[in-house]
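Worked example 2:
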Amino acid sequence: MNFDLTDERQMLQDSLRRYLRDKYDTATRNAILESDSGMSAEIWTGLAELGVIGALFTEDQGGFGGAGFDLAVVFEEIGRAGVVEPLLDAAVLAGGLIADLGDDAQRAHVDALIGGELHLAFAHGEPTSRYDLNRVQTSASVSGDSIVLNGRKAVVVNAEAADMIVVSARESGEVDDPAGISLFLVPKDAKGLTISGYALLAGGRAGEVTLDDVTLPASARLGAAGKAYAAVENRVAIATTALCAETLGAMETACTLTREYLATRKQFGRPIGTFQALAHRMSDLLIEMEQARSAVINAAGHLDADRVTRERHVAAAKNLIGRAGRLVAEDAIQMHGGIAMTQEYELAHIAKRIVMADHRFGDTDHHLERFIALSAA
């Protein structure tokens, strides 16, 4: 099997890497993190103009990519540069669900997203749901020609900046039934919608979203009533793969910074990288990183497979990335010493990003259990 990038993907990778190398450095990121929005409108517009957002959607959806390897190329570069703009949540999750389930009028929002004119967020997780996608307590009640939403959503990334939020709510069934879950497009200015925002440890901002008798027209529903679970599970699988690719890119940066530090930091008159103990530890990190790369390729290549096969490969990749990422982050910090903990040094952000990625969409233990269950199916 040929794992080389196509000419189009190689061009996308080269263009995105050059753009981020010129526009994104530690000082720039720190300034963005200290801002009220937690993101840069200039960078977001630049990514749209470069075609990066469009690469996450198929031609039928208004983009020019959309395959697993397209996402892997984009998000590996996003992770390599430590970009904090909410590309994963706004485009892959919220935008992807609109593209998958929306009618013609609703899909116009995807065009605006690809053009960099619209911000979206996806509100699905709840305070008691942990990693269970089927556990939805937020309710959707039909009242005449309208739908009324009530409930609370937790850690909604990009909620404050979003012009519109894709919200999941239950129209029927018990709290943990996969059936009965619907998705709705909720404008940010909807009456009864409140957002309490905060900064995230790995960068960017999220918010707790409360829906108190939020009344929407029936046209706000995405797809058929109570049939959204399969689309949500599919999109989360795609987003999990993208997060694995992003973490791989961050691991590459951590290894590069560590290798450069070992080559320049001297002790007893020679670079510390020549000491056998540190050289062996560095070799271990590079081996782990290549295993992680294989896992990302494997997951990206199976996103179009049947549900069980797709979910099994995604679970395997997320488990391996979580274990390898923690090793890379911890060893990189230890080999750097105190400098690795300073906000002005690149590794401080990169290491936090790697570690916190394990807690999105299911940690290593969750995906190990999920892999075993899917393998027995």
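The radius of gyration is 21 Å. Residues 89 and 121 are 6 Å apart (CA to CA).
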